[in-house]
C-alpha cells in the first residue's frame, strides 16, 4: 500500500490542538475590524449627545486609526521581547477597558482620550495574533490559518455599520462600545489558558530613533490637516506642522539607508514594484479610505437617513467587496496588473465622484446597486495594489514589507478622514447659504479627483515587465 502523500502548504488544515489559538487570533481580528466601522454610523448621534458639531466628529475616527498606525512598527518586537501571550493579553485588556471608558465618556475630550487607548490595544490585536500563528503553527498549516482569520475581517465591516446604526437608534450609542466587553473578557480568559508565551532570545535592539521619526511624521501630517479643518490654527501653524512631518519622513529615509537595524529598511524600495505599490496605495487611499466615514455621515446629515438605514446602506458596499474577490485573481491573470490598475483606479475615482449624485436616485434600490458596484471596484483596487506591493519581496523582506504596508494603510486612512474634515469645513464656509448636501457633493468630487490622479503612479508599471500570471493566490 502506497503511503499517503505529505500535504502541501496549500492543502494542510489546522490541527485540532491549535484550534483555540486560531480562534483567539480570529477574535482579535474581528474586534479590530468591527470597531473600525461600527462607530461611523453612530457619529451624528454621539455628536448630539456630547453637544458637538457632527462635522467635527472625525477626530473620533482619527484618534483610533492614527494610534493603530503609529504602533504597528513596534508590535512584533514587543511580542518577541516580552512573549506573545503577555502582549496579546495586555492588548485585549487595554482594548476592553478602553471600550468601557469610551462608553462612560461624559464629553468629547474624554471620548478622544479613550479612543487613543482603544487604538493602543487595537494596534496589537491583528499583528500579534498573526505572529502567534507564525510562531506556533507548523508552516504547512499557516496558509489555512491565515485564510480562516481573514473571514472575521470581512464579517466585521459588514456587521459594523448596521450594528452601530441599530444600537444608536433602538438603544444608545454607548452600546457600540459596551458590546466589546463580553468578547474581550472571553478573549482574556482563553489567552491566559491556551496561548503559549513564545518569545525570542538575543533579540536585536529596537530602532527607537526610527520609531520616533515615523511617529512624528504620521502625527504631524495628520494633525496639520486636522488643524486646518478646525479653523483654529493659522496658515503658518498649519504649514509648520506639515513641514515638520515631511522633514521627519526625509530624516527617516536617511536613517534607513545608514542603519541596518532600521524598522523599515531602505532595501525594500529597491524593488520597483514595491515602490510603485506603496506610492499607489498612498495616493489612492487618501481619496478612497475615507469613504466608510463620509458615506454614513452624508446619508444621515444631508439625506435624512436614520442611523439604522445608513448602516443598512453600507451592507451592499461590503457585500460587493466580498463577491468580487473570487473574480479578482482571474481578472489580473488575464489582463495583468498594469491594465487592471490603470482602468480600475479611474473607476474608483469616478465612483467616488458619483456619490455626489446620491440625491438623484429614484429609490433606495438603485442606491443599493450603486453602493454594490462601488464595493466591487474598490475591493479589486485594494487587492490588486496590495498583491502588487508584496508579491516579489524575498522571504526575508516579506514580513518587513507587510508591516510597512499595514502602517501606510492606517496612516492614509487617518489622513483621508482628516482631509474630509478640511474639505467639508472649506466648502461649508464658502457655501454657508447653501444646503449641507452641497458641501458633501463637492467633497466627493475632490476625493474622486485625487484618486483619479493616482492612476499616474500606476502608469509607471508600463515600464516594468510584469508576468500576467503573477496574480494573488
TrEMBL record:
InterPro entries: MFS (IPR011701), MFS_dom (IPR020846), MFS_trans_sf (IPR036259)
Domain Major facilitator superfamily (MFS) profile positions: 21-466
An example molecular function term from Gene Ontology annotations: transmembrane transporter activity
Membrane topology value: Multi-pass membrane protein
PROSITE patterns, per the entry: MFS
Pfam families: MFS_1
Metal-binding as UniProt keyword: no
Subcellular location: Cell membrane
CDD domains registered for this protein in UniProt: MFS_LmrB_MDR_like
GO CC annotation, single: plasma membrane
Protein keywords: Cell membrane, Membrane, Transmembrane, Transmembrane helix, Transport
Predominant location: membrane
TM region(s), chain numbering: 60-79, 86-106, 112-133, 142-160, 172-194, 206-225, 231-253, 274-295, 307-324, 336-358, 364-384, 404-427, 439-458
Protein's UniProt name: MFS transporter
Organism expressing this protein natively: Acinetobacter populi
Lineage: Bacteria, Pseudomonadati, Pseudomonadota, Gammaproteobacteria, Moraxellales
Amino acid at each position: 500500500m502506497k503511503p499517503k502523500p505529505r500535504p502541501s502548504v496549500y492543502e494542510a488544515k489546522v490541527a485540532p490542538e491549535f484550534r483555540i489559538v486560531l480562534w483567539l487570533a480570529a477574535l482579535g481580528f474581528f474586534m479590530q475590524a468591527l470597531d473600525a466601522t461600527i462607530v461611523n454610523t453612530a457619529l451624528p448621534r454621539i455628536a448630539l449627545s456630547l453637544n458637538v458639531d457632527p462635522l467635527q466628529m472625525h477626530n473620533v475616527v482619527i484618534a483610533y486609526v492614527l494610534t493603530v498606525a503609529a504602533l504597528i512598527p513596534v508590535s512584533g518586537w514587543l511580542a518577541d521581547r516580552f512573549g506573545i501571550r503577555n502582549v496579546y493579553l495586555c492588548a485585549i485588556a487595554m482594548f476592553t477597558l478602553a471600550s468601557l471608558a469610551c462608553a462612560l465618556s461624559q464629553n468629547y475630550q474624554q471620548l478622544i482620550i479613550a479612543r487613543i487607548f482603544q487604538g493602543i490595544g487595537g494596534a496589537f490585536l491583528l499583528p500579534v495574533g498573526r505572529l502567534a500563528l507564525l510562531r506556533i503553527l507548523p508552516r504547512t498549516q499557516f496558509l489555512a490559518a491565515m485564510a480562516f482569520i481573514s473571514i472575521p475581517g470581512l464579517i466585521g465591516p459588514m456587521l459594523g455599520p448596521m450594528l452601530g446604526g441599530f444600537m444608536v437608534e433602538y438603544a444608545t450609542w454607548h452600546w457600540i462600545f459596551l458590546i466589546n466587553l463580553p468578547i474581550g473578557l472571553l478573549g482574556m480568559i482563553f489567552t491566559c489558558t491556551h496561548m503559549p508565551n513564545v518569545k525570542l532570545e538575543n533579540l536585536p535592539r529596537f530602532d527607537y530613533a526610527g520609531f520616533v521619526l515615523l511617529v512624528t511624521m504620521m502625527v504631524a501630517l495628520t494633525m496639520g490637516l486636522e488643524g486646518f479643518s478646525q479653523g483654529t490654527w493659522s496658515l503658518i501653524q498649519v504649514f509648520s506642522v506639515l513641514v515638520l512631518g515631511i522633514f521627519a519622513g526625509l530624516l527617516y529615509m536617511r536613517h534607513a539607508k545608514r542603519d541596518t537595524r532600521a524598522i523599515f529598511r531602505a532595501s525594500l524600495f529597491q524593488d520597483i514594484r514595491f515602490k510603485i505599490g506603496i506610492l499607489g496605495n498612498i495616493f489612492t487611499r487618501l481619496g478612497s479610505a475615507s469613504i466608510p466615514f463620509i458615506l454614513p455621515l452624508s446619508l444621515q446629515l444631508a439625506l435624512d437617513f436614520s442611523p439604522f438605514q445608513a448602516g443598512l446602506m453600507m451592507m451592499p458596499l461590503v457585500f460587493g467587496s466580498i463577491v468580487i474577490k473570487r473574480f479578482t485573481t482571474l481578472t489580473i491573470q488575464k489582463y495583468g496588473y498594469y491594465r487592471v490598475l490603470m482602468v480600475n483606479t479611474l473607476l474608483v475615482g469616478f465612483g467616488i465622484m458619483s456619490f455626489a449624485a446620491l440625491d438623484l436616485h429614484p429609490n433606495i434600490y438603485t442606491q443599493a446597486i450603486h453602493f454594490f458596484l462601488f464595493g466591487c471596484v474598490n475591493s479589486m483596487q485594494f487587492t490588486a495594489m496590495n498583491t502588487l506591493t508584496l508579491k516579489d519581496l524575498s522571504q526575508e523582506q516579506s514580513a518587513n514589507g507587510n508591516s510597512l504596508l499595514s502602517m501606510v494603510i492606517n496612516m492614509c486612512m487617518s489622513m483621508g478622514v482628516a482631509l474630509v474634515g478640511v474639505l467639508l469645513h472649506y466648502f461649508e464656509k464658502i457655501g454657508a447659504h447653501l444646503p449641507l448636501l452641497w458641501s458633501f457633493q463637492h467633497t466627493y468630487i475632490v476625493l474622486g479627483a485625487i484618486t483619479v490622479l493616482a492612476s499616474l503612479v500606476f502608469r509607471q508599471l508600463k515600464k516594468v515587465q510584469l508576468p500576467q500570471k503573477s496574480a494573488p493566490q
